[in-house]
UniProtKB/TrEMBL annotation:
Lineage, broadest ranks: Eukaryota, Metazoa, Chordata, Craniata, Vertebrata
Annotated spans, Disordered: 221-256
Keywords, sorted A to Z: Leucine-rich repeat, Repeat
Protein known as: LRC18 protein
Organism: Centropus unirufus
PROSITE patterns per the UniProt record, alphabetical: LRR
Amino acid sequence: KGKGKGPKGRKITLKIAKESIRQSFDGALRLDLSKMGITTFPNCILKLADVDELDLSRNMLKKIPSTIEKFQKLRWLDLHSNQLEELPSTIGTLKNLFYLNLCNNKLISTNLPEELKLLKNLHILNLGLNRLDSIPTTLGDLGELKVMGLFDNALTSIPESVTGLPKLKKLNVERNPFPELEIEEEDVDPIKRIETLHLVQEKDLCRSCLRMCRGERENLKELGNMTPSPSKKPSFPLLLTPNSTAKDNQDEWRVR
């Protein structure tokens, strides 16, 4: 009676599994065991290994057995929102796999099998919401990959072999702790304030405009060379305030 082993989970029988098979509009057979409260992989479904799609998402699975290799016809494998900490190397034998969703699990980088690179027909791979701090460079061998999710992990870089995949159209890497580029404020602010900037050569300016531009340039140089004096109070000789230099002519300050 001693130690608890966590939630027992629902037992899936072969009858339940057969009743969970659906046929899609294109004729594909889909075994949908999502949201069933499953804690261990139901071995009985190995007798249904001729399905095209397998959905085990939103359960409490911690492990996928090596017998997953029995599903050789599998094109669609959805394992998102479980508690998976590792994958079997035999997942690389599923050569027809088109879609693989591993989002929202507990996968770490060292437990991603190198055999993932063997999924040459894979078009969509979702590894978001895991605990990955690096991505294997070997994923750059997935030449057919078009969509990849790496969001909400602990990544600080993405291998060039992955970003350079020839058919990759969408790569989601949001909410990872990538190092930010340090840009000084003085280099950014002037650009932010410019809405439109027109550049011309001196030869295209008339004489008066050229003199004005050169004069402005000299003024900017003088301002740049000036060093402010902290001890000297600023003087505003043209600023008149009531009851000061205008005290002899206060009627002009009053609203009539």
